[in-house]
Design a protein that fits this description.
Elements: E1 7-12, H1 20-33, E2 37-41, H2 45-50, E3 53-56, H3 83-95, E4 98-105, H4 107-118, E5 122-127, H5 143-163, E6 167-172, H6 179-188, E7 192-194, H7 202-211, E8 219-224, H8 230-241, E9 245-249, H9 261-279, E10 285-290, E11 293-298, H10 299-304, H11 311-320
Parallel strand pairs: 1-2, 1-4, 4-5, 5-10, 6-8, 6-9, 7-8
Antiparallel strand pairs: 2-3, 10-11
Helix pairs in contact: 1-9, 5-6, 6-11, 7-8
The protein binds adenosine-5'-diphosphate (ADP) and 6-O-phosphono-beta-D-fructofuranose (F6P).
6-O-phosphono-beta-D-fructofuranose binds at residues 15, 106, 129-131, 173-175, 225, 255.
């Protein structure tokens, strides 16, 4: 009699992040190499509830390593937050004889993963969000690519800003976190950054801009979306400094594009570890990278901890802009 292969599933959930496709590819191929069968459910938890899936073989994940977005699609499912929604998802997994689930997403998705675990499903998470706001890992998939997209866009803004001796306020994503903004500030040589974690005095900034420091043809202010709206900041600066200010809200462009080398390599490392953990019988945990080492964290540990900004990096933005 032919022995049935053990089955695992993979979903991509929450806001998409470039590199999710590289994760689906690596997880699928490594799991097949380890003797497993892999099923991809569409649209995150929505697909688990609707039993919407396809079996993934090596060929079906070919040609996606360099594509942004996620070919399994993503969604935010309110139904999954309910016990009845979760029951439907669990029944579908059980009916399809799926023993383990890889969840690729952010902290919201891992809260759902923890719920599944408490109801008997084996789950391992792979952090993927441009916000990089998940504790227990130095990097989440998509963050490095988003930063690369942002620095390309901001350097274009700098070209025109310095031609016209202008102040620009650029709004970046990050939800409630200033991590994208701090790293953008360093990587783009911003003059000021506004983040939800720190209070700033706009009148003081306006005063400094007004005095216009010698040798500077432009002023670049990076605003995290969680701190303020770029338009409001620009209006205040204009009022207080008395000169023209231009605004650029980068928006969802930050989530697109081909994944960076770092995100592709991380995708391979995270995927291997996630499959290894499932095979070792581990559950209720997320893989991560800490000080260059691939690690495992319990969901509840990372969900209870708020990942803050790097304080040293925040100070350095202002030191380096002097
Ligand atoms: P992310 O995973 O990027 O943080 P969301 O916060 O939108 O994105 O969460 C993705 C999905 O995870 C939600 O649409 C929902 O289905 C599920 N989810 C989020 N929070 C919870 C929760 N507290 N309990 C159960 N499921 C949740
Ligand atoms: O979590 C990723 C993220 O891009 C945040 O930075 C942003 O606040 C949010 O998702 C936007 O969500 P939506 O795609 O639903 O507009």
């Amino acid at each position: 009699m032919v022995k049935e292969k053990r089955r695992i599933a993979i979903i991509t959930s929450g806001g998409d992040a470039s590199g999710m496709n590289a994760v689906i590819r690596a997880t699928t191929r490594y799991a097949i190499y380890r003797g497993l069968e892999v099923y991809g459910f569409y649209e995150g938890y929505k697909g688990l509830i609707n039993n919407n899936f396809k079996m993934l073989d090596s060929n079906s994940v070919g040609g996606i390593i360099d594509r942004g977005g996620t070919f399994l699609y993503s969604a935010r499912s309110e139904e999954f937050k309910t016990r009845s929604g979760q029951k439907k998802a669990i029944n579908n997994l059980k009916d399809n004889k799926i023993e383990g689930l890889v969840i690729v997403g952010g902290d919201g998705s891992f809260r759902g993963g923890h719920d599944l675990h408490t109801q008997g499903i084996q789950v391992v998470g792979i952090p993927a969000t441009i916000d990089n706001d998940i504790a227990g890992t130095d990097f989440s998939i998509g963050f490095d690519t988003a930063l690369n997209v942002i620095i390309d866009l901001v350097s274009k803004i700098r070209d025109t800003a310095s031609s016209h001796e202008r102040t620009f306020v650029v709004e970046v994503m990050g939800r409630n976190s200033g991590i994208i903004a701090v790293n953008t500030g360093i990587a783009c040589g911003a003059d000021y950054i506004l983040i939800p974690e720190k209070k700033v005095d706009l009148a003081k900034i306006a005063g400094q801009i007004k005095r216009h420091r010698k040798g500077k043809r432009h002023t670049l202010i990076i605003v995290a979306e969680g701190a303020a709206s770029a338009n409001d900041v620009a209006s205040s600066i204009k009022l207080l400094a008395g000169h023209e200010v231009r605004v650029s809200v980068l928006g969802h462009i930050q989530r697109g594009g081909s994944p960076s080398a770092l995100d592709r390599v991380l995708a391979a490392k995270f995927s291997k570890k996630a499959v290894d953990l499932l095979l070792e019988g581990e559950s209720d945990c997320m893989v991560g990278i800490k000080s260059m080492k691939i690690v495992k964290n319990k969901f509840m540990d990372i969900l209870e901890e708020k990942k803050g900004i790097d304080e040293e990096l925040y100070k350095l933005v202002h030191v380096l802009s002097m």
